[in-house]
Amino acid sequence: MARCFIIVHGIFDGPQQFQNLSRFIKKVHPGTEVTVIDLYDDLLSLQPLWKQVPDFRQSFNSIMKNAPDGVHLLCFSQGAPAMNLILSSYSTDTDYLQKVFHKTLKKNVHFICYNKLGQKVSICDYWNDPHQRLSYLRNNIFLPLLNGERPHTWRENFLQIEKLVLIGGPDDGVITPWQSSHFGFYDSSENVVEMQKQEFYLNDAFGLKTLDQRGDLVTCVHSGVKHTTWHSNFTVFRNCMEKWLT
């Protein structure tokens, strides 16, 4: 039996934005079932991720019951950390903030995000301020847990992933730095530190290093692609996705 495909949309998105990607998949895999999870669409995507995850999990579980051979998950933008948590518990900085808050407020975003009220907005759930490390670890209730910066017991669940393909590029325009698409991030001086030098990778906090060492972590860099067009770009689909969707 062929694996079905589940698409998880990002912030300010919904099923409508993924019609092209669904067509790409059906073109190379005729007759394959493709489901775009229709939850927390558009402005509702701003709901806190801890609220969204249980509903996404319920939808995911209902599909998995009819997929004995497993599924292909294609997660875009905010959909990736949400689904990562679902997979990890199953038995990234963003310029969208600059669209919500003026650029001059960037250094003060931590005051807005790192409190109980701020953590009720999904964007703040994955706001990682490299200049406010202690406040981030103390007050962000989502991303530090997901990155293994707080202790949890999800590592073995994460390692059930057969192949993790990370797609990003320098012209994204929203993901900041763009290398965070590949688990890279800034140090306190805003120099980009690649994934393999991140503490959570070196400590294998949630299994990323193990996944990499066994050959099941793939990165795909593609230039010239804006954030909102990754899922509708057929060249990206051909170069970064198609060969893994078997």
Structure keywords:
EC 3.1.2.2, 12 helices, thiolester hydrolase activity, Rossmann fold, palmitoyl-CoA hydrolase, alpha/beta, hydrolase, 246 residues, three-stranded parallel beta sheet
Question: How would you explain this protein's 3D organization?
Answer:
The chain is α/β, with parallel strands linked by helices and 246 residues long. The chain has a single domain (4-244), classed as Alpha/Beta hydrolase fold, catalytic domain (Rossmann fold, 3-Layer(aba) Sandwich), CATH 3.40.50.1820. 34% of the residues lie in helices and 11% in strands. The chain contains 12 helices and 7 strands. The protein has helices spanning 19-28, 49-64, 79-88, 96-100, 109-113, 122-125, 133-139, 143-146, 155-158, 199-202, 208-213, 234-241, and strands at 4-8, 34-36, 71-75, 164-168, 185-186, 192-193, 217-221. The strands form 3 sheets. A 3-stranded parallel beta sheet has the order 2-1-3. A two-stranded parallel sheet has the order 4-7. Strands 5-6 form a two-stranded antiparallel ribbon. α2 (49-64) packs across α3. The longest helix is centred in the N-terminal third of the chain and has 16 residues, at 49-64. The mean pLDDT is 86.
What does this entry show, briefly?
This protein has 246 residues and is of the alpha/beta class. The protein has helices spanning 19-28, 49-64, 79-88, 96-100, 109-113, 122-125, 133-139, 143-146, 155-158, 199-202, 208-213, 234-241, and strands spanning 4-8, 34-36, 71-75, 164-168, 185-186, 192-193, 217-221. It has one domain (4-244): Rossmann fold.
